[in-house]
């Protein structure tokens, strides 16, 4: 099917100072309708639509009153939470510096720091009823290593949710193709009444990312001891 001349694909020319992967990424960004839509709607990233679509399917924000956003940068998910639940308490954490968002407390800190969980709950003023994690490890180019690093973050986020969530709360985390590892999936199923995988339309078709959505937290579920 021929493209309209008024809306052709924008191509990025090769440049000696730009790697081929960077050129392809830039071209993909320029031609991504969600990127343009995010700019038009005032969101900081296209990822905002992933949360909006997950919320439409699972009702994640319907009754959220205290929300933790793990890997908050650049802030698209927190913007959606504030839009949907303007009275909710929201605390986010990221290694990267994040521009302020009205009504959101932002901590620039490594979530894997032993002090991070306590600081998040202290800032939130009580246990969350929704824990969101869009964290992913920086890739090193080795598929197995990248998978293990990212799933390590997912596991840490899951344990944080299990240790802190209000009864009936929910946990959402980005995972990679193939979904959640078996052991972690079993853990979530013991602690939540519903555990499902979803790939929102805003997630690029060629991307390996999926999301695990766990709802109906059961704080008194029996499980093995958490990792030290």
Automatic annotation (TrEMBL):
GO terms for molecular function: rRNA (uridine-2'-O-)-methyltransferase activity. InterPro entries: RNA_methyltr_RlmE, RNA_MeTrfase_FtsJ_dom, rRNA-MeTfrase_E, SAM-dependent_MTases_sf. Keywords: Cytoplasm, Methyltransferase, rRNA processing, S-adenosyl-L-methionine, Transferase. Its main location: cytoplasm. Residues 1-25 are annotated as: Disordered. It catalyses: uridine(2552) in 23S rRNA + S-adenosyl-L-methionine = 2'-O-methyluridine(2552) in 23S rRNA + S-adenosyl-L-homocysteine + H(+). It is found in: Cytoplasm. Belongs to the class I-like SAM-binding methyltransferase superfamily. RNA methyltransferase RlmE family. Specifically methylates the uridine in position 2552 of 23S rRNA at the 2'-O position of the ribose in the fully assembled 50S ribosomal subunit. This is Ribosomal RNA large subunit methyltransferase E. The gene is rlmE.
């Amino acid at each position: 099917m021929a493209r309209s001349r008024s809306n052709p694909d924008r191509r990025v020319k090769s440049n000696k100072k730009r790697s081929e992967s960077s050129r392809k990424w830039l071209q993909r960004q320029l031609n991504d309708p969600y990127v343009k839509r995010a700019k038009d709607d005032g969101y900081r990233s296209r990822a905002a639509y992933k949360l909006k679509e997950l919320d439409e399917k699972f009702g994640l924000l319907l009754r959220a009153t205290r929300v933790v956003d793990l890997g908050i940068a650049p802030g698209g998910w927190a913007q959606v939470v504030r839009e949907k639940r303007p009275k909710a308490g929201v605390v986010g954490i990221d290694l990267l510096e994040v521009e302020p968002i009205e009504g959101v407390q932002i901590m620039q800190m490594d979530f894997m720091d032993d002090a991070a969980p306590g600081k998040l709950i202290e800032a939130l003023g009580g246990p969350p009823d929704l824990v969101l994690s869009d964290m992913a490890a920086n890739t090193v180019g080795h598929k197995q290593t990248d998978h293990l690093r990212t799933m390590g973050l997912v596991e840490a986020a899951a344990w944080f949710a299990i240790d802190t969530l209000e009864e009936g709360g929910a946990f959402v985390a980005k995972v990679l193709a193939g979904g959640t590892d078996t052991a972690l999936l079993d853990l979530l199923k013991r602690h939540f009444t519903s555990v499902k995988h979803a790939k929102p339309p805003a997630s690029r078709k060629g991307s390996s990312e999926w999301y695990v959505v766990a709802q109906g937290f059961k704080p008194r579920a029996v499980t093995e001891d958490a990792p030290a």
